[in-house]
């Protein structure tokens, strides 16, 4: 048994099995959290060949054909950047032929003016945004071809916080540890690891504070602690001292110095130069992504003949008199002894000791990032805790449905009538009609212009004149349609529309910010081991339950104030609730889709009105749809199908309320209340609407997953 002591290695990570045919050994991944890599590819099982390279966490093994030779790289990652080039929009040069060598366990600062390419260079080195040309080697291996194999060994702290502000420091680190550390880590081991990293960044006393209560510098230290959980070999930090006062800047730089002294390679992007002397190397970039210097900080002063690092900044900026200063600075460095000593010579030495290129496994195995079910449970728990801690937002979410429902009930009660869903309010009949042969009148015609439609049915069945009219017009139910007055169901339609639109609104607002607001956290977790489906379903399930609860509250309050009636094949309350629940989930999918597409919070909320207003226009309620083009286009909107189902359940007559048609000349509502539609016809219309809502939900779910996948692209 080989024991590998590192947080990235599971207790039972892999097994080497001797095989008789064709001989040799087969390595098997024992469902580890951070995988087994052979020649840079994740495998679940692989028959080893001579000179194959195996990676387990920071440990590298070479299979000789008869044995494994072990190399511990947890404290010895060397980075070689060779002729890196990158251009942006309009062919603007971002990196211009940059070469450098970062030895193991060194602290390197990348400095330069705004737009000099500091973050671009760092992201080229860490693989977040690879260079378009050139090579990055980690311990002599092509890093861009082995991103997955090295990803767990890298720590990365971007400019934005990668911790949720509505969690305590300890809980934020706890969820990260559960995500990144092996599944067989016990609660005691996780607690111990959290204690160790908090001690490293001097944040133990604030472990129970909400992250939102911390200062900017303290939040940055929590982000560093989060990355330290997996004990990375290489650490990248983008502007960690930005916005800090000089005292905190110095404290942060000395913290990073200690981390480098404990065996990590640290690469830091910064504008601040006050404490660069704490670094082992400094990399000065000039405009256009040009390398102006790489070497020890003290020697940089000698090279530039400047006493202060801030003066070096100024000396590298182009002027009107000499716009070629960056080009000249680059050329001067590349012909200097410093370039030979700190770049060219180390690159030559590294090339001589590079391992031979390995052949990749013939069949790449599917890479399973963590256990999907475990991640789903963990992410759902974290999301519930985030909602619970953000009490103001949670209160708003919980009050949406009752407030809208109460306002609707009050308005209906005072402005319309609380019996708006009674059958005689939805459908009213005349006591007489005019035909080409004269009037057909009920006996009550002399007393009233309107009458209950059940009386008309009795007239058409039992009265001589009524029976004659019915027999000549297709039977009782068809003849009845001539007596039904246009308009009475319009008020009921308005109430149903508000309910349908309200549920879409609830779902859309619930989801519109939930992905985009944690974009930086998502991208960092995705780079480590986060799977898309567990993440997506953690949002859908938690917010879906909330949406279902909101729909239930809405229908209960409305039914108490404005009782619902009719129903087709189920009691009216569950039948209407299923429609509203599906509509709410469709609205949630719309919101989450917006959140997955939008680049930031503000843009997401700007999209919401653009998404919601067409829900009103194409519902068919305010503007009846009679043209094929608008009818087909309207099918993508949840409110359209919600109204088709709700109107059918409550017995609305589309031909009497604006003549809205679902397709062609087919009326949108197929209810059974005094209509020509049978129970099976009405059931089919409701089930069609439910199926359409389900299809919208599934299609949007696939789009969400697709847009989340798009975030993986490395620009």
TrEMBL record:
<feature type="domain" description="ABC transporter">
    <location>
        <begin position="79"/>
        <end position="312"/>
    </location>
</feature>
<dbReference type="GO" id="GO:0016020">
    <property type="term" value="C:membrane"/>
</dbReference>
<dbReference type="InterPro" id="IPR050352">
    <property type="entry name" value="ABCG_transporters"/>
</dbReference>
<dbReference type="InterPro" id="IPR017871">
    <property type="entry name" value="ABC_transporter-like_CS"/>
</dbReference>
<dbReference type="InterPro" id="IPR003593">
    <property type="entry name" value="AAA+_ATPase"/>
</dbReference>
<keyword id="KW-0547">Nucleotide-binding</keyword>
<dbReference type="InterPro" id="IPR013525">
    <property type="entry name" value="ABC2_TM"/>
</dbReference>
<dbReference type="Pfam" id="PF00498">
    <property type="entry name" value="FHA"/>
</dbReference>
<keyword id="KW-0813">Transport</keyword>
<dbReference type="InterPro" id="IPR000253">
    <property type="entry name" value="FHA_dom"/>
</dbReference>
<feature type="transmembrane region" description="Helical">
    <location>
        <begin position="577"/>
        <end position="597"/>
    </location>
</feature>
<feature type="transmembrane region" description="Helical">
    <location>
        <begin position="687"/>
        <end position="708"/>
    </location>
</feature>
<keyword id="KW-0067">ATP-binding</keyword>
<dbReference type="InterPro" id="IPR003439">
    <property type="entry name" value="ABC_transporter-like_ATP-bd"/>
</dbReference>
<dbReference type="Pfam" id="PF00005">
    <property type="entry name" value="ABC_tran"/>
</dbReference>
<keyword id="KW-1133">Transmembrane helix</keyword>
<protein>
    <submittedName>
        <fullName>ATP-binding cassette domain-containing protein</fullName>
    </submittedName>
</protein>
<dbReference type="InterPro" id="IPR008984">
    <property type="entry name" value="SMAD_FHA_dom_sf"/>
</dbReference>
<feature type="transmembrane region" description="Helical">
    <location>
        <begin position="394"/>
        <end position="414"/>
    </location>
</feature>
<dbReference type="GO" id="GO:0016887">
    <property type="term" value="F:ATP hydrolysis activity"/>
</dbReference>
<feature type="domain" description="FHA">
    <location>
        <begin position="1"/>
        <end position="43"/>
    </location>
</feature>
<dbReference type="GO" id="GO:0005524">
    <property type="term" value="F:ATP binding"/>
</dbReference>
<keyword id="KW-0472">Membrane</keyword>
<dbReference type="Pfam" id="PF01061">
    <property type="entry name" value="ABC2_membrane"/>
</dbReference>
<dbReference type="InterPro" id="IPR027417">
    <property type="entry name" value="P-loop_NTPase"/>
</dbReference>
<feature type="transmembrane region" description="Helical">
    <location>
        <begin position="532"/>
        <end position="557"/>
    </location>
</feature>
<feature type="transmembrane region" description="Helical">
    <location>
        <begin position="604"/>
        <end position="623"/>
    </location>
</feature>
<dbReference type="GO" id="GO:0140359">
    <property type="term" value="F:ABC-type transporter activity"/>
</dbReference>
<keyword id="KW-0812">Transmembrane</keyword>
């Amino acid at each position: 048994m080989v024991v590998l002591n590192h947080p990235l290695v599971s207790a039972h990570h892999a097994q080497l099995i001797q095989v008789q045919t064709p001989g040799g050994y087969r390595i098997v991944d024992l469902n580890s959290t951070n995988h087994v890599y052979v020649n840079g590819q994740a495998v679940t099982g692989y028959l080893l060949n001579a000179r194959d390279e195996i990676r387990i966490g920071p440990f590298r093994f070479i299979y000789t054909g008869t044995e494994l030779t072990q190399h511990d790289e947890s404290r010895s990652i060397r980075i070689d950047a060779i002729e890196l080039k990158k251009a942006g929009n309009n062919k603007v040069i971002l990196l211009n032929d940059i070469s450098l060598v970062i030895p193991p366990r060194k602290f390197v600062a990348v400095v330069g003016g705004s737009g000099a390419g500091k973050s671009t260079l760092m992201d080229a080195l860490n693989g977040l945004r690879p260079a378009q040309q050139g090579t990055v080697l980690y311990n002599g291996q092509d890093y861009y071809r082995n991103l997955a194999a090295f990803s767990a060994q890298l720590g990365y702290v971007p400019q934005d916080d990668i911790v949720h502000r509505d969690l305590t420091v300890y809980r934020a680190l706890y969820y990260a540890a559960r995500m990144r550390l092996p599944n067989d880590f016990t609660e005691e081991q996780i607690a111990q690891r959290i204690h160790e990293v908090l001690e490293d960044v001097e944040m133990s006393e604030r472990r129970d504070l909400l992250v939102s209560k911390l200062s900017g510098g303290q939040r940055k230290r929590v982000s560093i602690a989060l990355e330290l959980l997996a004990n990375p070999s290489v650490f990248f930090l983008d502007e960690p001292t930005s916005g800090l006062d000089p005292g905190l800047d110095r404290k942060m730089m000395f913290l990073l110095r200690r981390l480098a002294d404990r065996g990590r390679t640290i690469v830091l992007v910064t504008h601040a130069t006050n404490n660069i002397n704490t670094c082992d190397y400094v990399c000065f970039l000039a405009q256009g992504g040009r390398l102006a210097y790489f070497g020890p900080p003290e020697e940089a002063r000698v090279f530039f003949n400047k006493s202060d690092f801030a003066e070096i900044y100024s000396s590298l900026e182009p002027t009107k008199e000499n716009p070629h200063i960056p080009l000249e600075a680059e050329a001067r460095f590349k012909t200097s002894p410093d370039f030979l000593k700190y770049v060219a010579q180390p690159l030559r030495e590294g090339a001589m000791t590079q391992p031979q290129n390995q052949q990749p496994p013939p069949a790449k195995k599917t890479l399973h990032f963590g256990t999907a079910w475990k991640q789903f449970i963990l992410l759902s728990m974290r999301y519930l805790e985030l909602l619970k801690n953000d009490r103001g937002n949670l209160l708003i979410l919980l009050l949406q449905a009752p407030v809208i429902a109460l306002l609707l009930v009050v308005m209906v009660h005072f402005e319309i009538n609380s019996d708006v869903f009674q059958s005689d309010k939805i459908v009213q009949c005349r006591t007489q009609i005019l035909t080409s042969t004269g009037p057909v009148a009920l006996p009550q015609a002399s007393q009233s212009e309107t009458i209950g439609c059940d009386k008309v049915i009795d007239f058409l069945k039992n009265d001589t004149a009524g029976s004659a009219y019915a027999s000549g017009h297709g039977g009782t139910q068809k003849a009845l349609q001539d007596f039904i007055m246009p308009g009475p169901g319009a008020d009921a339609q308005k109430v149903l529309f508000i309910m349908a639109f309200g549920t879409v609104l609830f779902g859309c607002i619930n989801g519109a910010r939930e992905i985009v607001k944690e974009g930086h956290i998502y991208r960092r977790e995705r780079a480590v081991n986060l799977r898309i489906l567990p993440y997506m379903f953690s949002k859908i399930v938690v917010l879906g339950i909330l949406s279902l609860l909101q729909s239930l509250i809405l229908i209960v309050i409305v039914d108490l104030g404005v009782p619902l009636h009719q129903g087709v094949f189920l009691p009216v309350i569950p039948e209407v609730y299923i429609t509203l629940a599906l509509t709410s989930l469709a609205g949630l999918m719309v919101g989450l889709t917006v959140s997955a597409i939008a680049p930031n919070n503000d843009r997401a909320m700007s999209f919401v009105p653009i998404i919601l207003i067409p829900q009103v226009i194409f519902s068919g309620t305010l503007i009846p749809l009679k043209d094929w083009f608008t009818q087909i286009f309207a099918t993508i909107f949840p409110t359209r199908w919600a109204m088709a189902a709700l109107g059918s359940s409550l017995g609305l007559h589309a031909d009497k309320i604006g003549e809205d048609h679902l397709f062609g000349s087919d009326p949108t509502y197929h209810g059974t209340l005094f209509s020509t539609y049978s129970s099976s016809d009405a059931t089919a219309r409701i089930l069609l609407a439910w199926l359409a809502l389900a299809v919208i939900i599934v299609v949007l779910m696939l789009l969400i997953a697709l847009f989340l996948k798009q975030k993986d692209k490395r620009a």
